[in-house]
Automatic annotation (TrEMBL):
<comment type="similarity">
    <text>Belongs to the insect chemoreceptor superfamily. Heteromeric odorant receptor channel (TC 1.A.69) family.</text>
</comment>
<feature type="transmembrane region" description="Helical">
    <location>
        <begin position="191"/>
        <end position="213"/>
    </location>
</feature>
<feature type="transmembrane region" description="Helical">
    <location>
        <begin position="46"/>
        <end position="67"/>
    </location>
</feature>
<dbReference type="GO" id="GO:0005549">
    <property type="term" value="F:odorant binding"/>
</dbReference>
<dbReference type="GO" id="GO:0007165">
    <property type="term" value="P:signal transduction"/>
</dbReference>
<feature type="transmembrane region" description="Helical">
    <location>
        <begin position="79"/>
        <end position="98"/>
    </location>
</feature>
<dbReference type="InterPro" id="IPR004117">
    <property type="entry name" value="7tm6_olfct_rcpt"/>
</dbReference>
<keyword id="KW-0552">Olfaction</keyword>
<feature type="transmembrane region" description="Helical">
    <location>
        <begin position="303"/>
        <end position="325"/>
    </location>
</feature>
<keyword id="KW-1003">Cell membrane</keyword>
<dbReference type="Pfam" id="PF02949">
    <property type="entry name" value="7tm_6"/>
</dbReference>
<dbReference type="GO" id="GO:0005886">
    <property type="term" value="C:plasma membrane"/>
</dbReference>
<protein>
    <recommendedName>
        <fullName>Odorant receptor</fullName>
    </recommendedName>
</protein>
<feature type="transmembrane region" description="Helical">
    <location>
        <begin position="274"/>
        <end position="297"/>
    </location>
</feature>
<keyword id="KW-0675">Receptor</keyword>
<keyword id="KW-1133">Transmembrane helix</keyword>
<keyword id="KW-0716">Sensory transduction</keyword>
Length: 400
């Protein structure tokens, strides 16, 4: 029997739901709810403060270790691959905190553009955007709740299988993050579980930063593409011949479309401003992290270490690829506006419309792209550059 129950409209907060482990650990950086007037607002959250404390403690300890090694020649307990990816995650978290007001305002803007009427949602094909989001959300849920425990538990398993008793010091490959801790806690087997729990907390903090960044980046991009595609369909439906019969109503409709195009271009510019610093810094940090991971996998014969490092290596490649792919998709969606205008029978319109069309076409040639201060453009060419940079760094390390 066919289900005749009315379908509920999709809301903006449905796209912004955190992962379960973020709720368990209280590391929800943006908590959203509706107020009495049904307006989407950000509720208070302590996620940033918990993450800030963990980051300050972790980097203070590691900074002291690096300074002691460089200035006094003391032995270091640094794990370069883990330290690089920790910086990679923390940059994303710092960007989320510094740009939190811009992010909140952008989400509010998307919420205003998201219709609550089911028919209008069907017209802009919101259900397709939500279906794509939900499929990806479930994949990330599986990654976070399976891959994260596996990554954290492997050093513990190595310690339990290879330790030589309470008198033997803890080696680096038995630690999760490495680095320095006061009172030589990292090498003291009596405090191994305490240190491991601290490392797990820092790891959960970094992964939570990564997932929040990833969710916001992809949800914003998905909604922008959805609105751009809807505008393209509206441009394709324009009949220039109507400008000869009902000019006033025809140009009123064009005014609405141009204003919407200007709004979407402004939103694309704001979207790029939010993430451009993270693009510039974290992508190159990702290259360094990927280089170190490849080096560790190539140089070790320890099966546990290979498994431990191959997981973040695959994740780094996959998510770097996706970010570059998303940039290409946004660029293509923006370029389709010009294509939609070019395929019109503009020559069938009135003289006024033909003049207006030339100006509109010139404005539509301003394709929206993701980039960082004109230094890089986030697209598939950039992904190739990152992979080549990582391989060159890897080759350099092997040669030394």
């Amino acid at each position: 029997m066919k289900n005749t129950e009315p379908r509920k409209p999709i809301k903006m907060e449905d796209f912004l739901r955190p992962q379960m482990f973020q709720q368990w650990t209280r590391m929800v950086h943006f908590a959203w709810k509706r107020d009495g007037s049904n307006r989407l607002v950000k509720s208070s959250s302590i996620g940033f403060w918990i993450s800030a404390v963990l980051n300050l403690v972790f980097f203070a300890f590691n900074g002291w270790d690096i300074i002691g090694h460089l200035m006094m020649g003391e032995p270091t307990n640094q794990n370069p691959p883990v330290f690089c990816i920790t910086i990679y995650f923390s940059i994303r978290g710092l960007m989320l905190f510094l740009k939190r007001r811009e992010i909140i305002n952008f989400v509010y803007a998307l919420d205003r553009e998201c219709p609550v009427d089911i028919d209008k949602q069907h017209e802009i094909r919101l259900e397709r955007t939500y279906s794509s989001f939900w499929m990806r959300y479930r994949f990330l849920r599986a990654y976070a709740h399976l891959g994260l425990p596996m990554f954290c538990c492997l050093p513990l398993a190595v310690y339990l299988l290879t330790n030589d008793g309470l008198g033997a010091p803890i080696t680096q490959h038995q630690q999760l993050l490495g680095g320095w801790m006061p009172f030589d806690l990292r090498r003291n087997p009596r405090f191994y579980l305490l240190v491991w729990l601290f490392d797990v907390s820092c790891t959960a903090c970094g992964v939570s930063f990564f997932l929040t960044f990833d969710n916001l980046f992809n949800v914003m991009q998905g909604h922008l593409i959805m609105h751009l595609n809807h505008l393209c369909r509206q441009l394709e439906a324009i009949d220039p011949a109507e400008s000869l019969t009902n000019e006033v109503e025809f140009f009123d409709g064009l005014k609405t479309l141009v204003q919407r195009q200007q709004l979407l271009n402004r939103l694309c510019g704001q979207y790029n401003d939010i993430f451009k610093v993270a693009f510039l810094v974290s992508n190159f940090m990702g290259s360094g992290s990927l280089c170190f991971y490849l080096f560790m996998i190539a140089e070790t014969t320890d099966l546990f270490m290979i498994i431990q490092y191959i997981l973040p290596t695959m994740v780094l490649v996959a998510f770097t690829f996706e970010i570059c792919l998303r940039g290409t998709q946004l660029e293509e969606a923006s370029a389709r506006l010009e294509s939609s205008l070019r395929h019109q029978t503009w020559y069938m319109g009135s003289r006024r419309y033909r003049k207006f069309f030339l100006l509109w076409l010139q404005y539509s040639q301003r394709t929206q792209k993701l980039g960082a201060f004109g230094l890089i453009e986030i697209n598939m060419v950039h992904f190739t550059d990152i992979m080549q940079l990582a391989f060159r760094l890897f080759t350099f390390l092997r040669s030394q």
